[in-house]
Structure formats: C-alpha cells, structure tokens
C-alpha cells in the first residue's frame, strides 16, 4: 500500500471509527487515543486485509484496541495523591550518615553498661517488650525491672551528656 492509499483510508473511516470508539468508552480523549492505536495497528497489518473488507476490519481492529485498553486499565491501580506523598523518602546521605553515627554511639554506650542494665534496655526499648514481659524474661519482679531500666537510662543519659 502506498501513502496515498493510507491517507485515503484514514480520511474515509476516521470519523466512523472515532464515533464508534466514543460510544464504547464515552470519553473524548480516550477515544482519540484508541483511534490512534487503531490506525497504527491497521498500518502495520493493512496488507492482510482485502480492499472490499477494510471498513469492517477497521471496526474489529478498533474493538480489539478498546478491549486491550480495558484489560490493561483493569490491571492498573490508581492511587490517590496522598499515597505518593507518604512514600517520599526525605532522607539524604547526610541524614543517613548522622543516623548511623548516632546508632554507633548508642551501641557503644549500651555495650558499656552492666549486663543487667544492658538487658533491660534492649528488651524494653529495642525489642518493645512490656515491663512485665521483660521482667519475666530476666526472671525478676516488675518493680525491680523498672528500677533497673530507670538506672540504665540514667547512665545512658549521663554518658551522652559527657560525649556532647
């Protein structure tokens, strides 16, 4: 097929195909997009079509393009704008480095604590156990655990103040 034939086919059937697609999807811009896809596909496979069957063939191509669009859009999940605001990562290499340094300092401070203080801080503050659960793990009463945790945190604060 030559360029003049393709132009003729486009000009002859474009309005009919557009109206058909518009009736299928009820959306002007979507109908235009699918119309473009229809004629792109038609351009690729026009040699396979007989001259007397072009119009029905174009309608079939248009319908298939519409169905493909529907399938693709059904697999797409549209998210609200807030979704994208919530996933934004505001961390920078500088912030990450500072965070790593602070974590390293904290690990160093914790490792310098007596064993029972260290265990109290780790169980409660890092692993999220309640006072009662942590006390059971350590095999002591809840009141005794609270005292250990308080003293451990005090030592950590004092070592932090000295390093500042």
- Low-confidence blocks of residues: none
Give the averaged pLDDT, no decimals.
85
Strand content: under 5%
Instruction: Tell me the Rg in angstroms.
Output: 35 Å
Determine the number of helices (DSSP H or I, runs of at least 4 residues). Answer: 8
Cα(first) to Cα(last) distance is 81 Å
The total count of strands amounts to 0
Q: Helix-strand pattern, N to C? A: HHHHHHHH
**Structural class, from secondary structure content?**
mainly alpha
Q: Note the main sheet.
A: none
Features:
164 residues, mainly alpha, 79% helix
Quick structural gist:
This protein is mostly helical and 164 residues long. The chain is 79% helix and 0% strand.
Structure description:
With 164 residues, this protein is an all-alpha fold. 79% of the residues lie in helices and 0% in strands. It contains eight helices and no strands. The longest helix has 23 residues. It is rod-shaped and about 95 Å long.
Break the fold down into its secondary structure elements and pairings.
Blueprint: H1 3-25, H2 28-45, H3 54-75, H4 81-86, H5 93-111, H6 115-126, H7 131-138, H8 142-163
Helix pairs in contact: 1-2, 1-3, 2-3, 6-7, 6-8, 7-8
């Amino acid at each position: 097929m030559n360029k003049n034939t393709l132009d003729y086919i486009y000009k002859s059937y474009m309005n009919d195909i557009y109206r058909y697609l518009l009736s299928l999807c009820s959306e002007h811009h979507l109908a235009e997009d699918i119309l473009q896809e229809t004629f792109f596909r038609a351009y690729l496979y026009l040699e396979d079509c007989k001259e007397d069957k072009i119009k029905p063939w174009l309608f079939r191509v248009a319908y298939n393009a519409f169905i493909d669009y529907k399938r693709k859009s059904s697999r797409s999940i549209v998210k609200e704008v807030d979704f994208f605001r919530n996933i934004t990562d505001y961390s920078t290499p500088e912030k990450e480095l500072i965070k790593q340094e602070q974590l390293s300092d904290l690990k160093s401070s914790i490792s310098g604590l007596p064993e029972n203080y260290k265990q109290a801080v780790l169980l409660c503050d890092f692993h999220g156990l309640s006072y009662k659960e942590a006390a059971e793990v350590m095999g002591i009463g809840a009141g005794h655990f609270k005292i250990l945790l308080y003293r451990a945190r005090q030592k950590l604060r004092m070592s932090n103040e000295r390093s500042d």
